[in-house]
Design brief:
Helices cover 80% and strands 0% of the residues. The chain contains eight helices and no strands. Helix 3 packs across helix 4 and helix 6 runs antiparallel to helix 7.
């Protein structure tokens, strides 16, 4: 260990991450010897991590239906918002999540904002149109 490790531990601790999330993250990064120690100390956490690792989106079977219900509730809420409410919600998404680094995070934020602003089948049509534009741009610019 080093001063750097100590300083990083302070920064990580300041993020106030849940204990089990930290243990799972540590297990993901551990070398063979340290992973064996972590498995021994936290067998139930290792078991859940191993199960979730091989599941779509990390969802356990009992969580899949709940996730579908949640998505349906959110879709219904979006479809029943006024234009002003949709704009406010899109701005809130940008404010809450737009500062996270990484292209995949930025893409997710844009996707969530568009889902909020575009109602019903318009989202699917917009995605198809955007995909066609991207293919056309790649073909014409290469």
């Amino acid at each position: 260990m080093s001063l750097y490790d100590y300083e990083r531990s302070k920064a990580i601790s300041a993020q106030n991450e849940p204990f089990y999330a930290l243990i799972m993250a540590t297990m993901r990064q551990a070398d063979t010897d340290n992973l064996a120690k972590l498995k021994n100390a936290f067998p139930e956490i290792w078991e859940e991590l191993a199960i979730r690792y091989n599941r779509p989106a990390g969802l356990l079977p009992e969580e899949i239906e709940e996730e579908r219900r949640k998505e349906n509730r959110e879709k219904w809420a979006r479809e029943n918002m006024t234009s002003e409410q949709r704009i406010d919600k899109a701005i809130q998404i940008a404010y809450d999540y737009g500062q996270i680094d990484g292209d995949h995070h930025k893409a997710w934020v844009i996707d969530q904002m568009v889902r909020t602003l575009v109602i019903g089948k318009g989202y699917d049509q917009m995605i198809r149109y955007g995909s066609l534009l991207a293919k056309s741009y790649a073909t014409n610019c290469s």
